[in-house]
Automatic annotation (TrEMBL):
This is Aminoglycoside phosphotransferase domain-containing protein. It comes from Sinobacterium caligoides. Pfam families: APH. Keywords: ATP-binding, Nucleotide-binding. Residues 26-245 form the Aminoglycoside phosphotransferase domain. InterPro entries: Aminoglycoside_PTrfase (IPR002575), Kinase-like_dom_sf (IPR011009). GO terms for molecular function: ATP binding.
Amino acid sequence: MSVAKLLNWTLAQLNIGANDDYCWAAVSGDASFRHYYRLESNGRSYIVVSAPPEKEKNHEFVAIADGLRASGVLTPEIIAVDYQQGFILQQDLGDQLLLPLLNEGNVDGWYAQAMDSMLRLSQSALSDLPVYGVSLLSNEFALFAEWFVSRELDYTLSAKESALLASLNDILVASAQQQPQVVVHRDYHARNIMIVGKQLGVIDFQDAVLGPVSYDLVSLLKDCYVRWPREQVVAWVEQYRLSYQALTGQSFDTGQWLRWFDLMGLQRHIKVLGIFCRLWLRDGKEAYLVDLPRVIAYVEEVAGLYPELESFSKWFSETILPLAEQQPWFQRS
């Protein structure tokens, strides 16, 4: 990607001459292949994205951004797009992520606001979204065995162990499919939520799907980058159940809702163990390793809560955990 070409394209979209005053600077990126830049001119600021079309879902990003905004979710306004080159010019929502501002004194308020936005997102009128069904859920689950167990821990699963994981996947998929299917951001956590004035903005939504109602709730409340006490999380889960019921007119048992949430969390965190290791081993992104112990703790917590998970819990604690503890990145928080 030519930065000069991206800059010239941006200046042309905004009718800024080469000799006009402007400021152009790189902005820190994320786990994708996208590169971000900020252009400031005449008191206004813009974000410019270079997203290789062969790697990134640019059409989806633009369509979903427009759809979410129409549903009352604050997302960056798309100003111009060149799909062939993978260039996107969009509104600048600023730099303030939610994550670094969270503390015990303010998290209830921020999460209440984030869950309100999530509720609107879940009911967005988006069409043609992929379905978060058996195939996608199972493919994600398989990342755990390939990238975390085999490649990172250098452990070879036996046929019996593979069967144990297949059985667990069946349990988790069945639970996911029992739930109301809504619009799911798929990575709705405090690094993808921005504070814009008194509002919360949402970014990184191009992988949205139609999927289980508890998925985004897990992403937020059992964030891979910050952890809160179980009792507090359960209270938030119940708060969202009541809000969802009030909005939709549907009714759900408290215990069933919490079980859906917990099993969805187990699916997500098992997947994330594989994804974070893939980011390290394939893409050289070492920063995600420091978060693996937190994700492991989430897996341990839920695996010990439900009788149907007992076999997996025993195997994970006796076989996988000792191998993880030998890794240089392992450190209990």
